[in-house]
Amino acid sequence: MISRAALLWISLLFPVALAAPLSLNIFDSGSTSTSTPTAISKDTVQAQFLRPAQFSRVAYCSSEAVTSWTCGAPCESLGGGVKVLQAGGDDGLIPMYFVAHDPATESIIVAHQGTEKSSVLSILNDVQIQLVGLNSTRFPDANEDIKVHDGFQKTFERTADGMLEAVRTGLESTGTNKVLVTGHSLGAAVATLDAVFLKQNLEPSVEVTTTLFGLPRGGNQEWADFVDSKLGSTFTHISNQNDPVPTVPPRFLGYQHPAGEVHIKAVDADGEATDIVACGGQENENCSEGNSVLNVSIDNHAGPYLGNISFGGKFCPL
């Protein structure tokens, strides 16, 4: 009997077998960058990526543990003072998420859990890979050519309104004007939609920064361009070595990544990224887009990415 974990990876690597018939031009692979990646310093990695990774790890813990800030090592790594404004999810159709105030960076944090491999309902969020129109009610300035992953959009919509209300309340009560949106895997896909949604619904003076880990493709070329136009250089998605998830759903189904990839090429025995580069353009063939399908590592998807941080519920207290 096939395990739930195996079903997850089959759904990611061979999505055509699990999807409804798609009316897509399979020869449309979108734009590809060939620019040479540029090295990122260790200081930049620590300053810009470590804290988002720590918050993304917390998102795998239960709402109760997060609300009380008793989620063991994931909470302890962030220090005291973090105030949780909202937490929810059920480890299934509604992945765990939370909104919090981080006094260390004077930011409102929005973080989403990735796929829970032990939950069939969570996996179902991933396998609904039909490209569907972006919800024009939530994104009124999006044109009809923009298509997104059906399962990711449905997952986003289950928490979007509550998340927005909590962010607005947090901004007002703390006086900050910064929001960090983060997540890993499925959580990164939902966080991308969150970030664009927040950018459209918050005051222009609010800085929205998005830092994601192990991001699967979430929409078509028009969606990638829309993300680029709305978030620009404030959007970063970090891929780890030979992780296959950033390369799915495949481009021949019409999927395309936005710009902003940062690629970890090597991690040392202490879990520190030792070779990390910024990848110019969309789908840079010198980064995860250039990985061989014959040399993938599912372990790379969990981590470690940097700071010896890996993702998953096993790092949370029972």
Automatic annotation (TrEMBL):
Could you tell me the Gene Ontology terms of the biological process aspect for this record?
A: lipid metabolic process
Q: Which UniProt keywords apply?
A: Disulfide bond, Signal
Q: Does the keyword tRNA-binding apply?
A: no
Q: Which Pfam families match?
A: Lipase_3
**Could you confirm whether the keyword Transcription regulation appears in this record?**
no
Which residues are in the Fungal lipase-type domain?
Answer: 110-251
- Catalytic activity annotated for this protein? a diacylglycerol + H2O = a monoacylglycerol + a fatty acid + H(+); a monoacylglycerol + H2O = glycerol + a fatty acid + H(+)
The leader peptide range reads 1-19
According to its UniProt record, which protein family does this protein belong to?
A: Belongs to the AB hydrolase superfamily. Lipase family. Class 3 subfamily.
Q: What is this protein called?
A: Alpha/beta-hydrolase
- In its UniProt entry, the species of origin is given as Collybia nuda
Lineage per the UniProt record: Eukaryota, Fungi, Dikarya, Basidiomycota, Agaricomycotina
